[in-house]
Amino acid sequence: MKRIAKFEKVSYEQFLGDWDGGLCKDDPKTVYDKIMLPKRATTGSAGYDFFIPFDITLSPGQTVKIPTGIRCYIEPEWVLKIYPRSGLGFKFRLQLNNTVGIIDSDYYYSSNEGHIMAKITNDSNEDKTVSLKSGDGFCQGIFVEYGITFDDDVSAKRDGGFGSTSK
Predict the structure, then answer these.
(1) How far apart are CA 51 and CA 118, in angstroms?
(2) Taking the domains of the chain in order of start, what are their residue ranges?
(3) Thinking of the domain 5-148, which architecture would CATH place it in?
(4) 3-state DSSP call for residue 7?
(5) pLDDT digit string, tens, across residues 121-155
(6) Which of 2, 21, 49, 166 could form a disulfide with 137 if both were Cys (CB 3.0 to 4.6 A apart)?
(7) Exposed, middle or buried, 118 (CB in 10 Å: 0-12/13-18/19+)?
């Protein structure tokens, strides 16, 4: 197996800057101190589970943006793809709003420290409420190698998160 990445926590200052006090009434420093780095559940797991940093309950149709407190150094020519945990999708139709999150290797160097955010929606059509406790796995990341075309001559540098490469 190639070892091509490393998960880290963003700084407390960055986490606090991305914190939404209306989403969680807990003390942000307490939440930050309990953040767990993503990890695989078994030796055969492809996905690294991301753990929700605080308790949350989502009613059907409700959407929230989760500051994970996580960033990831990724070797060039690799990407981290973020997917919902299959069990939550199957049982509750918990969705990532962008369907698959793409974390490029240069995102790590952005001014937001490469803070990985996850916007999730309870898309239940069966009137099911989703309750997640701090430390529950809620999405998973898989590292994938990628290639580029022979005539690719891009030289632009990134600085930012969602939509920053199209500015």
Answers:
(1) 11
(2) 5-148
(3) Distorted Sandwich (2.70)
(4) strand
(5) 999 889 999 999 999 999 999 999 999 999 999 99
(6) 49
(7) buried
